[in-house]
Write a structure and sequence with these properties.
nine-stranded mixed sheet; 7 helices; 30% helix; 27% strand; globular
Amino acid sequence: MRIHYLQHVPFEGLASIEQWATKKDYIISATKFYNDEILPSVNDLDWLIVMGGPMNIYDDDKYPWLTLEKNFIAEAINQNKVVIGICLGSQLIADVLGAKVYKGQEKEIGWYPIQVTTEAQNSQVFASFPESFTVFHWHGDVFDLPTGAIRLAYSEVCANQAFIYGDRVLGLQFHLESTQDSVRQIIENCASELVAGKYIQNPKEMLARDDDFSKINTAMCKILDYFATL
């Protein structure tokens, strides 16, 4: 299995996904846009994982590689690759599929529950998820559901938290891959976002959740295991 991931900033890497892939002895490669790295051929990968970042999908003027990235994601989807987007990654996929991406009513930063839809409970990818599940968030933008996609989850302030498009394209607004170390790095680099807000926790609250980190990483592994069977 050849897994290629797109990384937008130094402090948002694969986290627990890398541990999963390493145990499986899969081949991992990356395009790190912050280092001006070049995209590979879509033919040279089986999976594409698009990570998060503090930029917005419409910041092409500031980050010219966003245009190239969107085209690359579209090509991977058209070639029937497994494509998984996390946070910014899910927003990029939504945009590529023709959905609107825009600023949400509230930022969600920290541990907050998502509700799993009936469609998700009937699907294989989210089959093991409980109806309500506490996950880690760090986002301000949201997206409309792409035409033809199935909504998998929502939260109190975000109508579309996850979707699947076809059998091989998954968008997750939240972070199941996060570890205490990866969250610590985001806190250190995005501290300016930690202002008073209804859905913004403080760093101490975010990091003191050993059991929740374990649960989301287990959930991430189950999703990855599902896609590995396709």
